[in-house]
Each structure stands twice: as C-alpha cells, then as structure tokens.
User: Fold this.
Amino acid sequence: MDAKHIRNVAVIAHVDHGKTTLVDRLLYQSGMFRHEDLDRMAGGQHGLIMDSNPLERERGITIFSKNCSIGYHDADGAPIKINIIDTPGHADFGGEVERVLSMADGALLLVDAFEGPMPQTRFVLQKALGYGLQPILLVNKADRSDARPHVVLDEVFDLLVDLGANDSTLDFPVIYASAKEGWATTDLDHRTDSLRPVLDAIVSHVPPPEVHPNEPLRMLVTTLDYSEYVGRIAIGRVTAGEIQSGKEVAVMGRNVIPYRRRVSELFTFEGLDRQKQESVKAGDLCAVVGLDPIYIGDTLCDPEDPGALESIPVDEPTLHMNFRVNDGPFAAREGKYVTSRQIKERLEKELLSNVALRVVPGKTTDEFQVSGRGLMHFGILLENLRREGYEITVGKPRVVTKEIDGKIQEPMELLVVDVPVNIQSAVMSLIGNRRAEIVRIDGKPGASGFVHLEFTIPARGLVGLRGRMMTATQGQAIMHHSFSHYGPWRGDIPHRTSGVMTATEMGRVTAYSLDNLLDRGFFFVAREEVYEGQIVGEHNRENDIPVNVVRAKKQTNIRTHAKDDASGVRPVRRMTLEGALEYIAEDELVEITPAAIRMRKRLLKAAERKRESRKG
Ligand SMILES: Nc1nc2c(ncn2[C@@H]2O[C@H](COP(=O)(O)OP(=O)(O)OP(=O)(O)O)[C@@H](O)[C@H]2O)c(=O)[nH]1
Ligand SMILES: [Mg+2]
Assistant:
C-alpha cells in the first residue's frame, strides 16, 4: 500500500482513561468483523478484545502495547488503512509507550472527562511531543454524570503550554466521546451515534508517514514478539525502501556486530490479524520473522547499502530486587522449576522482550539482581513465573540510586492526589512524613468540593502509600504517580510501623492457637501449613514477636468442633504478591510458588536473627 493511504496513530493516555475500550469499539464499528466473532474474543474484567493477555484480563489493565488496523476512507472516498497502536497507561509501562511512539505519525490523546490530565497524561504527552507528534485530544467518558469536558479541555491546553508546545500544537483538534457508548462528536450540543468523528480526525490530522520509498531499506525494530516456533519476531515501521520475504537484510545496532539474515516470513497488521506478505513498502508497520538474535533498537537495512537509524532510548530501571532460589523448608513442594539454572534461563528468555528489565548475577550463584521500572513491572513478571511453575524468593525492592556530581540521587515521582476538601488534612499528614514536597495546590474547577494536590516524592515514599491513603480517606482520594526525575536523596523515610508475628515451629495452623493470639494483631494465614520463621501475622506493636500458631487444644474426650469451625469467620488478610513486596522489611523475603505467596524472615531461626542483630 502506498504511504499516502496509511495513517499510523498511537492511542495514549493515563491509566484507565479508556484507550482499549475505544480501540475495541472502533473495531466493532469498522464493519470488518461479525459482532458475534468479536464478542467471542472479548473477555476479562472490562470485557475487552485487545487486552488479550491473561494477566491483562485479570487485572483489567493493558500491559503490552498492541497493533491492529482499520480500513477507512478519506473525504474523497479513497481507501485509508489506519494502523492503531493501543498502549498501556500504567506508569510502570511508560517505557513501552515511549518506544512504540516511534512507529506513529500522530497521537490520539485520551483524557477522562472528569479526572482531567493525570501524571501519566503528562508523561506520555511529553514523549509524544518529543517525537514531534501533533496530538488530537479526545475527551473521553463524556457520558459521566460528573463530566466537566470544557474544563478538561482548558486543563489540557495549560498542560501543553507547560510542556512548551508550539502554536500549531496548541491548535489541537478536539473530540468529545464516550468510548463505552460508542459515540463521538466535535460539538457536545450535537451528539452522533458513532465513532466516525474519531476516524475522520485521524485521517485529516495525522499526516501520512514520511517515507523514502526509493532509498535503500531501513526499518527500526520497536517491539519484539516471541513464539516458541519461530523465535523472535521483530515489529516496526519501514521508513525507507521495501522489505521482502525471502530476501537477505543486514541487521545493525548498538548491541550487535552487523550480520545478515534471510527474512523467512513477513506480515502486516490487518484488522486483528497478521496477514502474510511478499513485500512491505515504506510507511506500513510490519512483523518480520527469521532475524534472531534481533534486539529492540536494531535497524534492518539493505545489505548492499547498510546504515543504522537512530536507536530508541529505553528508560533506565528505577527499582531493583534480589531474586533467589527458594531455600525455605517447603522448597520444591509446589513448583516444577526450582533450580538456579532454571531461573537463570527463564530470566534470560524474559530479557528478549521485556526491554526495561535488567538482570545481573547476584552475590552467590543462587542469586540474581533484577532491575525494573516499578512494583507492578516486577509483580507481572513474578506472577507469570509462578503460573509457569517456578518457585522463587525475592527480597525487598530498593530504588536504584545514581551518583551525580558526587551526590547520591534517587528517583522522584510526580504524585497527584484529588480529594474532597474536608479530608485534605488527612492526606497532608500522611504524605508529610514521606519527604514529599508540595508543588501545587488548587481547587479542581468544575468539581466543587475537591482539591487538587501535586507533590514530588521519592519513589521510596510511595511504598505502601496507596493502602494507607485509601484507609485515611475512606477511599475518596484519587491518587496517581509517575516517574519524574532523579533528585538529591531526601533522607530517611519510616517504613512499616508495626512488627510482625513469626511462627516458632513447623506445622498446620490451628484455629485454637489463633484464637489465643487474637489480641496481638491480625493474621495472614488461616489453616495452612507454616514453618519456623514464616511471617504469620502483623503485631499491633512495633516489635516482632515469635508465636506458636500450630498448638493443638489439649485433648479431651469430647471433641469441640464448634470452635475450630468458627475460624472460617475470623478475618484473614491474604497478601497479594505486590502487597507482600511492599510490606516486607529489609530482613525479610517473599516466597513465591505456584500454590502460595508467603512472607518469611531471611534468617528463619530466632537465635540466628538475634545473633545478626547483635553484630549490628
Ligand atoms: N463511563 C465511561 N466509562 C468508560 C468509557 N471508556 C472506558 N470506560 C471504562 O473505563 C475503564 C477502563 O477502560 P480501559 O479501556 O481498560 O482503559 P485503558 O485506558 O485502556 O486502561 P489501561 O490500558 O490499563 O491504561 C473500564 O471500566 C471501561 O469500561 C466511557 O466512555 N465512559
Ligand atoms: Mg488499555
């Protein structure tokens, strides 16, 4: 297809503002599919097609960016192929957004009609401007009863001014829409019944790809896919020349010595599928098979006239964690893969497509230091590992510090909190002792009774904040953050304020023993087996205490089931994987297996812990 009939557009937004819902609805309305077929493909929390990964479905968020295309036409009726790139909105996957933006020639910026621009809106918009993309604003969720679309428009304008946008960018087109209800309009007084205005805006405001069809082949690899059968699949946009199936290309990049490979298969994105092609011309996006060991940022080029395109920056990791072999007493009971060699191989495979991840050997051969972009980034990886049958223990996540001009610098995040005015003070006191600095306090226009607070806060200070914020504000706060910059170390931040209860011996937890400890705190375990040194509950004081949770009631002749059965009613706080990662202290670990998530002391015996703490 000729480049002038192609539009490449990335859909970008803060998390949950409705990107995938919009892409899904566009697919429904495209006329390319039978609705029953699409209905069958939908699933997960939000019933979406494009969020196809099992973890995406479970969590109701997008983790990986994805391509699809829609056949449309321009004002004169000429066919136009719109390649749409759906991107993740969660801050931990910001690096992914940044990379795929290099495939796009325009950005559709979605903003929630009530929430307005949020930290990740700022982050992705800044990246889009960095690539010279002109955004089209889509104020989504205009159906919300608390929508304040006109104010949100002003807020986006101010944000663009703040980001130094030029006059032509400030002249951005605006669409109001409800992705969920499937309509869009340029004028809220005249509603339509379809999303056509979105497609029209893309066709007329996103420029066709700027290409050099008669020059030698150049294609930057922006995404990698992986298949057990064909190995790595390189995805990107052809910017010059033409790529052909069966022909040799040269691969050039920062990390590799240039080498040649034959393209074994070539695909374009058509609707929701990949369609095999003999050749793909400059302008279109494609997937290329047969180039192992290809990396993101490599250039595919003409072997007779090679040359590398400028590689894409990949965001540096901000958090690291120790992954190690499970050496707890229950090791290898629940998992299939438990050795350090198996873990190493799995991590190496992960590195092929998980670009923001880094792995280096740890202190011993049983340890690996893994770096990533945030708690969720680690959470997804670990969740995948346990589902595949791995066992692993991990230590407390730590921020990656840098030394700049002889000073220790740490990652800072922009934190935005919107709360009802009457509980603002609860938020301030919560954030106050986490070394946050206030950047802005404003009323939230159009949302009376709300105040809008912006802070910079060390990434460390966010650990465990969300849960406490929700408790302190009875769930009324809207809180979001995203990476901002590296800044000077801001000093100590108090971590967990309460101690834990650790089991003194191995065995099955009894209701009887838990009942006897009820006034000491709450428990993370119910009737399962535990081992010595495992964290079984939180103490309601500052210190850690050993507890016996496996004690059985003295045998009498009459068996009293009643009490044991009552244990079903006793509240157990089950920790999620990410919850446990946030919770543990320096001397603790999280044990992750296909069947369980346990928290434990690094040193399981109380005597060993005592000896270590004496050493200071
Ligand atoms: N009221 C209303 N809700 C919407 C609209 N669009 C999406 N939603 C809801 O918003 C939630 C998030 O939608 P998604 O499409 O997953 O949002 P997203 O931007 O793709 O989220 P991430 O990819 O995780 O960043 C879902 O519950 C949707 O049903 C809309 O136009 N109106
Ligand atoms: Mg999404």
Residues 149-162 form the longest helix (14 residues). The first strand starts at residue 6 and ends at 13.
